[in-house]
User: Fold this.
Amino acid sequence: MPKFMRSCANSRAALHYFNLNCLHALCSAHHLRELTYAHEQEGQGWAKEMIALLLVMQETVKTHGGSLSDAQAALYVDQYRALLKRAEIECPPPDPKKIPGQRGRTKRSKSRNLLERLINYETDILRFMTDVEVPFTNNQGENDIRMTKVHQKISGCFRSQEGADIFCRIRSYLSTCRKNNVSSTEALSLLFEGRLPDFMA
Assistant:
């Protein structure tokens, strides 16, 4: 079981990931997009402040080598909670009184749903500050699996397990080379010459 799983913040399917027995982290790139919508389309001032705070957190973590001490992180957690308390005033929950005949939970705005997620999943949202293995977004993970999903979308499926294994091995090799500043062309040329890039040697 992986140490942690990075989930899309706004996906219904992401909720199912929490059934897996591992640490979880929610993607801040998704939050930034939703916060931008909340600010620009629904006029939520707190959302603009949260965007600024998350970006400051990201930059601070980056300048400190990928993680903050518990004391440093605590300062940002305090700011995060204080901002969400102000957001509760600006974006309150809907009136709990139901219209006669209405069933289920009272509908909430997108901004309110986002606010509640930021409150309820604070630990998983801010895990990137203290765990060096947790990135700010899951963009890299999505990039790494995108071609596999594109292949499935075009071809429908892999014809055999062996073919799927070969495809994934090739994509993994090219992705690893790219992350080590070796172009795909150079990586494949070395492979056909029976050699590996220097970083693998």
